[in-house]
């Protein structure tokens, strides 16, 4: 993790926004404060953040809309802060590409730890396609996971969008082929726990991954569901 990394804090409540911003500055981050989606878009025109901390409940434009728009613009880790959002809203946020969330009011030390963890996972040395060690490449259906560069590539070598939590789930499967992994274990390995609805949180991420790697996401052959137990990665696809 590089010192002075830029974090955007998006929250319509000035007191909460300032508190988070001041705390992150105390710990060496540069911070841009935004009071909503419009301010975030203006800030993005000036500089790209390393991470975004985003309030899910804002009056003019809700955080779900902001997450959707942000993830279409660039691949940046997003931590949602949720005060009154339902589990459905939180799962929708994860489905749209958010990497993690915390309930408000949050413990600032925990927020800092989550930020640092996401940034560590997001940092990967730049490496042209095709130059990685073969041991770092794992085929997942129609795509190839580059463990060294933390990216997913298609058959042409082009990078495919992949969130930090998606990468960590794929790495967990790569490290444990043909082994049933429970949802609880997968979320431990991915570092993305959802204490109220963790079963659904991992299911959402698996659904997103299947859309990217499976020839037919409705009939998955590579990441199989094991009813009542979890999921299993089949490197050669489902047989028979």
UniProtKB/TrEMBL annotation:
Residues 135-235 form the OmpR/PhoB-type domain. Residues 135-235 bind DNA. It is found in: Cytoplasm. One of its GO terms (biological process) is regulation of DNA-templated transcription. PROSITE patterns: OMPR_PHOB (PS51755), RESPONSE_REGULATORY (PS50110). Keywords: Activator, Cytoplasm, DNA-binding, Phosphoprotein, Transcription, Transcription regulation, Two-component regulatory system. It holds the Pfam family Trans_reg_C. The modification 4-aspartylphosphate is found at residue 55. It comes from Phreatobacter cathodiphilus. This is Regulatory protein VirG. One of its GO terms (cellular component) is protein-DNA complex. Transmembrane segments: none annotated. Coiled coil: none annotated. GO terms for molecular function: phosphorelay response regulator activity; transcription cis-regulatory region binding. InterPro entries: CheY-like_superfamily, OmpR/PhoB-type_DNA-bd, Sig_transdc_resp-reg_C-effctor, Sig_transdc_resp-reg_receiver, WalR-like, WH-like_DNA-bd_sf. Residues 6-119 form the Response regulatory domain.
